Amino acid sequence: xxxxxxxxxxxxxxxxxxxxxxxxxxxxxxxxxxxxxxxxxxxxxxxxxxxxxxxxxxxxxxxxxxxxxxxxxxxxxxxxxxxxxxxxxxxxxxxxxxxxxxxxxxxxxxxxxxxxxxxxxxxxxxxxxxxxxxxxxxxxxxxxxxxxxxxxxxxxxxxxxxxxxxxxxxxxxxxxxxxxxxxxxxxxxxxxxxxxxxxxxxxxxxxxxxxxxxxxxxxxxxxxxxxxxxxxxxxxxxxxxxxxxxxxxxxxxxxxxxxxxxxxxxxxxxxxxxxxxxxxxxxxxxxxxxxxxxxxxxxxxxxxxxxxxxxxxxxxxxxxxxxxxxxxxxxxxxxxxxxxxxxxxxxxxxxxxxxxxxxxxxxxxxxxxxxxxxxxxxxxxxxxxxxxxxxxxxxxxxxxxxxxxxxxxxxxxxxxx
Length: 417
Hints:
The longest helix is centred in the N-terminal third of the chain and has 24 residues, at 95-118. The protein folds into 3 domains: 29-253, Lysozyme (Orthogonal Bundle), CATH 1.10.530; 265-357, no CATH class; 366-417, LysM domain (Membrane-bound Lytic Murein Transglycosylase D, Chain A, Roll), CATH 3.10.350.10. It has helices at residues 64-71, 82-91, 95-118, 128-133, 153-158, 173-191, 194-203, 205-215, 231-248, 277-284, 288-294, 318-329, 360-366, 380-386, 391-397; strands spanning 266-270, 275-276, 302-303, 310-314, 371-373, 410-412. By secondary structure, the chain is mainly α. The chain starts with 63 loop residues before the first helix and ends in a 5-residue tail after the last strand.
């Protein structure tokens, strides 16, 4: 058994309603022992009116990603079922390859874990992309699942995720992850058992509700419920508990979990101007392939702010990217054919939470005659906050009687000029 292996630095590289995406019963992790404090990475623009501390300015403990994950687990351990142990050994049959795969996945895994925590979802579900895709940005053929969550087009449409020839939101890490975690949280509210949540994720919510209606909720034992579901659905839960088993007891499988330095954690950088991926990569000091890998939703080689107003970057690339954009906007920047020419970026850039740090006067000047397309999860409050305007102003400019907005709705975010 390996006990002295040192942590290796991580290289930069890196279905039916949710039957499209590919635990024992427990309450939501919010009632479990509190995890060790961790820095708030970034928040997707589709969630949370709160303003967390930017990760780029936070001290990060390399070990927190794994200990926080263990502390948030709510289902069975390694020895609860022999099939769990068998799959854990299968995952780690080649320790070096497993470590390399986990190291490449770690930045996305860390991001997903913190979104799961915000939604009070059991930590095991932060590992679902391992079961589905090993956190890779899988491009699905037409009508097939896509992204690290392996979401079907029909499911994406039901969740308000944009999918078209230019942009596939299933590959947008923040938006897709937030949508999935919100759905899993609702599943648990309805089903009350994390094992059934995983069954619903794999086989579809309504199918599992019918099974529970006919046969009742499963007992605590066996851990893998003996319900009339397809073998692949039962195996999905086994696989999920197996990778959690490895995270619980890595030494048992002769593997070491990689460190994740703070500078390699993924953060969100909001931008005002569309640009080619190659130019954005140059600004960040990255290869276009590396930037595309973590921003795979953009399908036509252009970071289109009409589709998504941010890019994901490793935190150690944010300052260089910001400085390059500022210099470009103060110099001779060239616009991207077919994209809107927006006001200079200036200080309207955030590395973590969508707060641009600009004063209200500067912000209002930059938003003159602008519109905003509502995305899934956004509220009138969050949109008003983003553009530094009052909710009453938004209601007046858009002739809204209440505060309800819908995905795809186009709102004026400045006084008509």
